[in-house]
Amino acid sequence: MRDHKGLNEITCSIRKDIVSMIHGAKSGHPGGSLSAVEILTALYFDEMNIDPTNPKMEDRDRFVLSKGHAAPVLYATLAHKGYFDKEELKGLRKTGRMLQGHPDMKGTPGVEMSTGSLGQGFSVACGMAMASKLDNAPWRVYALLGDGECQEGIVWEAAMSAAHYKLDNMTAFLDYNGLQIDGNTDDVMSLGSIVDKFKAFGWNVIEIDGHDFDQIFAALDMAKSTVGQPTMIVAKTIKGRGVSFMENQAGWHGNAPSDEHLRIALEELGGAFHE
């Protein structure tokens, strides 16, 4: 039986750290970081075979944050898991500090791939899954994409390749919050039926509420039991989840909260930075 209460407490702490670290940096991407918290919490605190004391463990599962601008959710998750001290979060985007604006695999323990150019992380994740297959290795690969990211052609080249090579050790999440930097994804460049698209490209597709742990874990179990196909979990989420004035607001894609915004956000989330 999974400890949902414990997982929910972790998500609350991670959300507090996300808004606090972006406030401290005076730049960053809160909206799409907050929408993915439950997904990363489920992966890092239950699903994946990982060891924070040995980040390069040979048979570890791999996670790639393809939408690299959502680095704050990855950093906060890694810190809470124990990959590095939580005090490092206060150095987000600061010169000479470890946590860059986008993930850096050379400088940050637990980061598997340097990402930022949209679509490339997904492509590399598929390559990792292929490497695991070629080596007959047990480890699995997980990736997180944004819905706006799926407007990039490289996403579909990778999707086609993963299906062709039957990478059933590959599970991707689509953070389907319906918003990107310029507004609604349907208005900027409609994705049509993203579910039908991935099915047409040969993927096993599962639709869930991306904030519901029961649905997340059920989808992950289904993915592991699927043979001969990679799995795309289309997770319906709310951009800015947990902070009322950020929820479903495209303007919070890449803006930092002011002092007053931070105060309100932390009050809603139930505490102060690292409390």
TrEMBL record:
Presence of keyword Mitochondrion: no
Cofactors that this protein relies on: thiamine diphosphate
Keywords of this entry: Metal-binding, Thiamine pyrophosphate, Transferase
Tree of life domain: Bacteria
Domain Transketolase N-terminal, first and last residues per copy: 13-270
Descriptive protein name: Transketolase
Entries under InterPro entries matching the protein: THDP-binding, Transketolase_CS, Transketolase_N
Family membership noted in the UniProt record: Belongs to the transketolase family.
